[in-house]
């Protein structure tokens, strides 16, 4: 159990960005054999990213095991708590990274390259970038963009630049929110736990959260209204899911800034109103995207 805990399975939910291409690439419906190939490829990419991210989590825990003892939650991690020594942790990290790389190259060469780039980038993040203000959050956001691109690669669909920009700005919003939550939760120990928190101030982070959340929403609207989206889906009705987007963004921001949760994973996995809002948004997107494909139109509804 302690070795599974080191792999942080709860954090695997971050890899659901891989499945975005299935929805927005219209691969969920169609000939059964094509759907099965697309879904199985996406699941394979998801598994590869789970193993890749776990390897980087373990590496991060090895490097940060001393500072993790200052964090009320991170101190419970096996390495910080002294339940696992460095040797077995290194072996587990290598096994996870190897399985991710081998599996990715079996699925698609491009996916293998993306996984290698992701692992190298996150190792550099642990060693260098996480100590640099703003760049630390940018690297994390790029990692999520790689997940979205990986999903598009394995299912063989084009991914809109607006969707990539939306993913990047949304994840910047999540990263800055996590920094804000850490400052609230750790208080005077925040600078000892994470050096960059000394450079961030609550006021600056609130500003960054406001800017990135706004950019994420605007990018989604531009994607929804883009001519390429209209050509692909036969409709721009995705714009009508904006209330769900705003609800999730605003609720997330409010709860994080109040210190109710220490980070995105904790909030997303525990806050039921947020989960309901997100699920409703996904279901609405699926209905709108696939309605035209199934010969259903909402044009007359919006006319009223």
Rounded average pLDDT:
86
How much helicity do the residues have? Answer: over 70%
Largest sheet descriptor: none
How many β-strand runs?
0
- What's the domain count? 2
Class of secondary structure makeup: mainly alpha
- The fraction of residues in strands falls at under 5%
Shape from CA axes? globular
CATH topology of the largest domain: the name is Tetracycline Repressor, domain 2
Question: In angstroms, what separates the terminal alpha carbons?
Answer: 56 Å
- Please state the CA-atom Rg, rounded to the nearest Å: 20 Å
CATH class of the largest domain: Mainly Alpha
Low-confidence stretches: 300-304
Specify the number of helices. 14
H/E series:
HHHHHHHHHHHHHH
Let me know the CATH homologous superfamily of the largest domain.
Answer: UbiA prenyltransferase
Q: Using the 3D structure, state the CATH architecture of the largest domain.
A: Orthogonal Bundle
Can you characterise this structure?
The structure is a single chain. The protein is mostly helical and 304 residues long. The protein has two domains: 1-159, Orthogonal Bundle (Tetracycline Repressor, domain 2); 160-304. 70% of the residues lie in helices and 0% in strands. The protein contains 14 helices and no strands. α3 (32-63) packs parallel to α5 (109-127). Mean pLDDT is 86; it is low at 300-304.
């Amino acid at each position: 159990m302690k070795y599974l805990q080191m792999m942080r399975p709860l954090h695997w939910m971050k890899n659901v960005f891989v499945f975005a291409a299935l929805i927005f690439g219209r691969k969920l419906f169609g000939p059964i054999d094509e759907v099965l190939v697309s879904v199985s490829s996406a699941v394979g990419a998801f598994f590869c990213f789970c193993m890749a991210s776990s390897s980087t989590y373990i590496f991060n825990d090895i490097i940060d095991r001393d500072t993790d003892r200052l964090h009320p939650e991170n101190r419970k991690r096996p390495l910080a708590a002294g339940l696992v020594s460095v040797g077995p942790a290194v072996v587990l990290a290598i096994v996870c990274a190897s399985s991710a790389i081998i599996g990715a190259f079996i699925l698609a060469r491009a996916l293998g390259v993306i996984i290698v780039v992701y692992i190298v980038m996150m190792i550099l993040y642990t060693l260098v970038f996480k100590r640099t203000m703003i760049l630390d959050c940018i690297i994390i956001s790029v990692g999520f963009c790689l997940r979205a691109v990986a999903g598009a690669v394995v299912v063989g669909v084009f991914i809109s630049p607006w969707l990539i920009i939306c993913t990047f700005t949304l994840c910047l919003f999540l990263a800055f929110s996590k920094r804000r939550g850490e400052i609230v939760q750790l208080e005077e120990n925040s600078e000892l736990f994470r050096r960059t928190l000394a450079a961030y101030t609550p006021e600056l982070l609130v500003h960054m959260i406001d800017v990135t959340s706004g950019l994420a929403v605007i990018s989604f609207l531009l994607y929804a209204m883009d001519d390429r989206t209209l050509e692909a889906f036969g409709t721009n009705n995705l714009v009508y899911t904006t209330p769900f987007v705003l609800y999730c963004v605003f609720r997330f921001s409010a709860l994080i800034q109040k210190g109710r949760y220490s980070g995105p994973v904790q909030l997303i996995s525990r806050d039921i109103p947020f989960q309901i809002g997100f699920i409703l948004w996904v279901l609405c997107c699926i209905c709108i995207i696939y309605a035209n494909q199934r010969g259903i139109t909402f044009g007359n509804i919006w006319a009223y």
